[in-house]
Amino acid sequence: MLGRIGATVATLSAVMTLGGAPASAAGPQAKPRVLVLATGGTIAQTTGKDSVLSGSALVAAVPGLDAAADVSAEQIAQVSSPDITAEVWLRLARRIDEVLASGAADGVVVTHGTDTLEETAYFLDLVVKSDKPVVVVGSMRGSRAVSADGPANLANAVAIAADPAARGAGVLVTLNDGIYAARDVTKTNTTGLDAFKAPDIGALGIMQGHKPHFYRTTTRPQTAATEFDVSTLRALPRVAIVYSYVDVGPALLNAAIGDGAKGIVYAGTGNGSIPKAVQPAVAAGVGKGVVVVRSSRVNGGLVERNGEHDDDALGTVTSDTLNPQKARVLLMLALTKTSDAKQIQQMFSRY
After folding, report:
1. Which of 21, 34, 176, 261 measures 20 to 30 Å from 204, CA to CA?
2. Integer Cα distance of 79 and 262 in angstroms
């Protein structure tokens, strides 16, 4: 009897050895590697208005951040987000592609000021050539403020970037426990902690206990699925936004074209309306090869093609649900491929 028991134990031991050791015997599983690329912004502010904290300092200030991943940091820029430039965008995109393609990181977090965060996020969503997680994060309060939100937001961003569920989701934005698609999110409040929302589309998921919970995905092509390649570019085509209002005239639009703009986003009233006083200037600009996109100053809704205006006759493009600043990002990239308005309209319908 004892012999049979001993044989059974030996057999079970052999099976466990062949089939794989128990988790305790296999050793700790390697943690995901997350690279934080810092650009400045409110999240890096201490006192005053200057962004002084480095990416390494931001990482070091969050207790337990290394629980979810092995986190390292690099500095790409150190500016407030109104001072972000296309050159910074291109540098960010190249570094993200480089580190993800090399296998040096499993995900990337970009720290950024909130004023132009949505534009940077959408640019990266259109140009990064990897399906690995990329998360853009900021804060509404500086690090010395009462109830500063930066550390929690950064911890959430790292957790998302380290989560396999975020792979293939496109570039994501997280603040105040929300998870948003870069295409859809926008800043809706000047100072509130819940400033970032996706008014028409909604969030992709939520954070709970610094763990991401996803409930839907975006259907628009992004990252590796887009046609845009900025790897060799050192500049982007100039695109201006012209804002509409009561009694507006063509002066600002003409000035932008005269200043060398290759594209204009017209932030019209309502459904992207262009006043009669401005339409001849639009037609003249289109005649000179300038691409004009009708967007809306309303923070929501779809700008309908051939709805408010005969876009086919006027030669204009409509922005779908993209707000003026997002429409500008897509138009800049579209102009790196073509200046044909019909082809660019297809891009706005696709992306």
Report:
1. 34
2. 27
Please check whether residue 213 is in contact with residue 165, taking contact to mean a CB–CB distance below 8 angstroms. Answer: no
Name the catalytic one among 39, 42, 174, 226.
42
Rounded to whole angstroms, the Cα distance separating 115 from 81 reads 6
- As given in the structure block, the two tokens for residue 144 are 């010395």
When the pLDDT of each residue in the chain is averaged and rounded to a whole number, the result is 92
Domain with CATH 3.40.50.40 in the chain: 239-350
22 burial via Cβ count (<10 Å: 0-12, 13-18, 19+): exposed
What is the pLDDT, as a whole number, of residue 14? 36
pLDDT tens sequence across 94-115: 999 999 999 999 999 999 999 9
CATH code for residues 33-225: 3.40.50.1170
Radius of gyration (C-alpha) of the chain in whole angstroms: 24
**Structurally, what CATH architecture does the domain formed by 239-350 represent?**
3-Layer(aba) Sandwich (3.40)
H/E stretch holding 326: helix 324-334
Name the segment(s) of the chain with CATH classification 3.40.50.1170.
Answer: 33-225
Is residue 85 part of the annotated active site? The answer reads no
C-alpha 131/C-alpha 43 separation (Å) is 26
β pairing state of 33-40 and 107-111: parallel
Q: What does the DSSP assignment read for 275-297?
A: -TTTHHHHHHHHHTT-EEEEEES
* pTM score above 0.85: yes
Q: How confident is the model at residue 347 (pLDDT cuts 50, 70, 90)?
A: very high
H helix or E strand, kind and range, residue 205: strand 205-208
Q: In whole angstroms, give the CA distance from residue 130 to residue 136.
A: 15
The answer to whether residue 121 scores a pLDDT higher than 70 is yes
What's the rounded Cα separation, in Å, for the pair 305 and 291?
Answer: 15
Q: Which residue's structure tokens are 């800043």? A: 187
- Which whole-number Å values give the CA distances from 61 to 65, 107, 152, 155, in the listed order? 9, 20, 11, 10
Contact 255, 285 (CB under 8 A): no
